[in-house]
Every structure is written in C-alpha cells, then in structure tokens.
Amino acid sequence: MIAIRFERVTKMFDDQVVLKDFDLKVRKAETKIILGGSGSGKTTILKMVLGLVKPDQGRIWVNDRDITDLSEDELMDIRKEIGMVFQEGALFDSMTVGENVAYPLREARRHTPEEMEAAVRRLLGFVGLADAFDKMPSELSGGMKRRVAIARAVVHRPSIVLYDEPTAGLDPITSRTICDLVIALRDLEGVSSIFVTHDLSAATTLASEMAIRESSGQVTFRSENNEFCLANTRFVILKDGQIIFEGTDESLDTAEDEYVREFLT
Question: What is the model's pLDDT at position 244?
Fold first, then answer.
C-alpha cells in the first residue's frame, strides 16, 4: 500500500520554483528522510500532504485518495489520518501535558473521558513521560516537549506521521530518544512517515536501526550488520525543487554527485 504519493508536482511562490515535476512515494511502515538546503521545498512537501498548500500542477494521494482538489471540509477527514510533529513542539501553554495530548481526541468527540485518559497515559508511558500528566509545558525541557508533541501526534493512531526538524537544537542523548520513538512507531506500529531534517546523525540512526519488541514486552533496537539490512527507510535529497538522490544509507555513502557529497560534509 502506498501511504503518500506525489506525481509530477510543481509548485511556485511568486517567481520561485519550489518543487518541479516532483515524484515521491512513501509506502506503509516506510520512512522517507528528506534533506536539502533552505528553500529546497522540504516544508512545502509536508504542507501539501496536509492539504495546506495546493500544487500548481500534478496530483497528490494520501492513503490512495486523491487530495489535490479536495475542499477544506473534505480535507478534515484526511487530516484525521495524519499526525504532525513540529520543531518547537507547538504545545498549548495554558493546558497541562495530559490535556495537550488529549486535544485531538477531544476534537474528534468519539471518546469518553475515561477512554481519553487511558489513551493519553498509555502514550505518555510510550514516550517515557508517564509522570508528566499533570505538569504544564513550562515545567518541561525542550526535549520533553518534543516527546509530548509526538504523543499528541499519535494519540489518535494515525497511519501517517510528518516530522518537521524534530531533533533540531537538542543534545545528542535527547535527540537519540526522539529517534528511538520514531523508529518504534515505524517498526512496531506500522506508521508511515516523512522526516524532514538537517540532522545527519539522527537521519543515519533512523536509516540503520530497527525496533524489536521482545517476548517480555521490552523494546530493543538492532543495528544493521552483515545479516540484517533495513529496507523500510530511504534518504531523499532535494536541490532546486527536484530529487537528486534517493536511496539507502549504504548507497548514500557511495553517491558520486558533487552536491550530495558537499551536502554531507
């Protein structure tokens, strides 16, 4: 199943071409890591998946539904299938952590208060913040806010999650925690995702490790080796609105394109 598909998409803002004849496919339980310089179209891609920006040419599908010409009301149903994690977390300062995570469930109006609290506590446990239910965002570190944002993004069990620079500005240990959550969602929950980043270390971790749930219920992470090669994560590098590289971390290491080599150094 193809979760996201762009077909020959072109987008211009004034006289600037942001995307040109852009093609992209993201399969179920696959992550596409998108790299590129400023203005290369990374954030525009995320906005197009949400229907916030319309292409000038081409078509976009989400979960086999053509969203290109959908109205705002029709797009609301599509957005229920998508979670979004912003760089700064974008939490509501006046709400507790529990209320922030529950927000998508309250908006859906399909759950009892007891069901919402159970779902929120489960997700906060998943992101390692079980004790933060009654805290305010101002009491959290930047990394903790990002983890709360991930819990909020997936509390309604979306099939797709979009990440916009979720590890930017974080220390290596916290960044690693965020990567572990993204990997676990991909491998254990079957979530499809687009991960926009400038963080090559985080990108490499996503592309080279897999989450496994042991019989005890504990989640462990396994690195690629001679017997295991990760198949559900690909790098995509953009330049001037087009893809100049798409492939595994192994093929990225041997890429000969001068721009790709300069971008990675």
Answer: 92
